[in-house]
Design goal:
This protein has 311 residues and is of the alpha/beta class. It is 23% helix and 22% strand. It binds zinc ion (ZN).
């Protein structure tokens, strides 16, 4: 893919400067959104240490856990999310090929149940979307007792969450004292959802928003725009501390990503994206990306139009 990086950003800066001049206002640098708060005590396993474990778990609070699959097992190095309520547990995604995620998930669940003097709780397995690097561990969960694995098609997702009007409906899914919002966001992939947790004020943003390459097939660009417009409307009325996506592909140098399929991520960008990144993505998608076959580079992510794909 031709790169052309940098041109979009400088054009935008020029446009902002021109707009400020025409408005007669003082020339100021475009405001940079505040960084997201740091939510994790440790840095994530990034493939730079010889003996890194195949998975790493970090807690956001006592009921919210993030699991990373080592980049040494699969270059996708996805993040999975495990949320506990009083009545049920939600797992978002099951990992990429060559990952063995279920023992880690079972261990965290076992420790939580023991600490809370609970017996079993039903486990619901949802997916940020249906690409292989997020569903490869499904089989191991399908045979797990007291577990429901949601299907992979938009109709399966809509029916499980009781959405009458995909993708416009936003469903409430209550884990028991923890009512999550399920936000359909097709574009990157047809069954893509985001999940908002009012307790932690965290948005699980999947592959539609993360510090990396946000691939959008050009034949689904309008769906993506509509999805991010709906997301921005949601964000305007719900407090969001940070968006947490499913991968990291950016370095800590603004606008710079790793090479594709990198097997180590030295100096990796944080997982947390600020809520301002939603507006940045929404604005970026206003560009005629169907005719610009290169990545649109932002400090914290790159919007990547890709050739048409069936979904
Ligand atoms: Zn992915």
């Amino acid at each position: 893919m031709a790169s052309g990086r940098g041109s979009w950003r400088s054009n935008t800066t020029a446009a902002l400067v021109l707009a400020a001049f025409l408005a007669g206002s003082a020339l100021v640098a475009p405001a940079r959104s505040l960084p997201a708060p740091a939510l994790f005590r440790e840095t994530w396993i990034d493939g730079t240490a010889a003996g890194e474990p195949e998975t790493q778990v970090q807690a956001i609070d006592g009921d919210t856990f993030v699991i990373r699959q080592s980049v040494k097992t699969n270059f996708e190095a996805p993040f999975l999310y495990l949320l506990f309520g009083q009545d049920r547990i939600l797992l978002v995604d099951t990992g990429a090929e060559n990952g063995v995620l279920r023992p880690t998930v079972d261990r965290v669940i076992g420790e939580w149940l023991a600490a809370h003097h609970r017996g079993q709780l039903p486990l619901i397995v949802a997916h940020s979307h249906s690409h292989g690097d997020h569903i490869a561990g499904d089989a191991a969960f399908r045979e797990r007792p007291n577990t429901t694995v949601i299907g992979l098609k938009p109709a399966d997702v809509a029916s499980f969450f009781g959405m009458k009007n995909w993708p416009q409906s936003i469903a409430i899914f209550d884990l028991g004292g923890r009512a999550l919002s399920i936000i359909p966001t097709p574009g990157h992939q047809a069954a893509h959802i985001m999940i908002y947790d009012p307790r932690t004020q965290i948005l699980l943003s999947g592959d539609a928003l993360y510090p990396g390459r946000l691939y959008v097939p050009v034949n689904h660009m309008d769906e993506e725009r509509a999805s991010i417009d709906r997301l921005a409307a949601f964000a305007a009325t719900h407090p969001i501390r940070a968006a947490l996506g499913a991968h990291i592909e950016m370095t800590r140098t603004p606008g710079r990503d790793y090479v594709q399929q990198a097997l180590a991520h030295p100096d990796e960008h944080r997982l947390e994206l600020s809520p301002g990144s939603i507006g940045a993505l929404q604005n970026g998608l206003k560009a005629p990306l169907e005719r610009e076959w290169h990545g649109q580079v932002h400090d914290d992510f790159i919007v990547y139009p890709v050739p048409p794909r069936p979904q």
